[in-house]
Amino acid sequence: MPQREPALLWLRDCALTALVLALCTLTSWVFFRLDFVSSNYILTYILGVMYINVFTSGLVYGVVASLFSVMLVNYMFIDPFMQFRIRSDDMVTAVVMLCVSLLCSSLTGRIKVQAAQSERKAYASQVLLEASRSLLGAEDPDAILRITATQLGKLLERPVCFAPAPEHIAPGTLILPPPAQTDYRSCPALHEFSTYEHNLALSILDVCSLALEKEASNRARREIEEAARQEQLRANLLRSISHDLRTPLTSISGNALILTEKNPLLTEEKRRELSAAIYEDANWLNHLVENLLSITRMENGQVNLRIQPELIQDIFDDVLAHLDHDAAHHTIVTNVADDLLMADMDAQLIEQVLVNLINNAIKYTPEHSRIELFAAPEGKFVRICVTDDGPGIPEESRDKLFDMFYTLGKTRSDGRRGLGLGLALCRSIVAAHGGVINVQNAAPHGACFRFTLPRTEVTLYE
Question: What does pTM read for this prediction?
Answer without folding.
Answer: 0.47
